[in-house]
Amino acid sequence: MDILKIATEWAKAEVFSTRFFIFFAILFLIASIGFWQLGKTEIARAYIIPTLVAGVLLMTIGLGLFFTNKSRITEFETAYNSDASAFVESEIMRAERTLKEYKTVVFKAIPIIIIVAALLIIFINTPTWLAISITTIAMMIVILFVDGTAHARIESYHKELKLVDLKSEINK
């Protein structure tokens, strides 16, 4: 039953973590409204759409992950009670897939996007592209911040799952 507690705690931590996506989404949306209402210069007006898009994207990510992980908490108990070893095996496979995704998407693609956005700031000096690039960098930093902690959690969770799997193999 210890693995069920570990899995549930991991999912609850993920639910808490996704609230940061929602929090930053709200900040981006407030910024967009602020630029729309108070923006007098061309550069300030250029931020309206990019911050709105970033806010909507972060809100979509946050709400999607929130509801996915929230439902996972109840599903864990059902799956564990029906077949504990199959539950552990499926969680190990899911954690390994997620770790691979983090490796390619979060720790390779996002830094490349940040570099491209920074280069756009240097080479294309129009208000619209400046706003798009800066907003993109800010959004990617938020994603790195939240997903960096999520990566550490799932890595730890994966190690615990492997230990449980190893113990069950030894006990056979």
Percent in strands: under 5%
Radius of gyration: 20 Å
Mean pLDDT, all residues: 92
Largest sheet: none
Poorly predicted segments: none
What general outline do the C-alpha atoms trace? elongated
Task: Tally the structural domains.
Answer: 1
Task: Please characterize this protein's 3D structure.
By secondary structure, the protein is mostly helical. It has one domain (2-171). It is 94% helix and 0% strand. The protein has five helices and no strands. α4 (84-123) runs antiparallel to α5. The radius of gyration is 20 Å and the shape is elongated. The two termini are 18 Å apart. The mean pLDDT is 92.
Provide the fold topology.
Blueprint: H1 2-38, H2 42-46, H3 48-82, H4 84-123, H5 127-171
Descriptive keywords:
single chain; 172 residues; mainly alpha
Summarize the entry for a quick read.
The chain is mainly alpha-helical and 172 residues long. The chain is 94% helix and 0% strand.
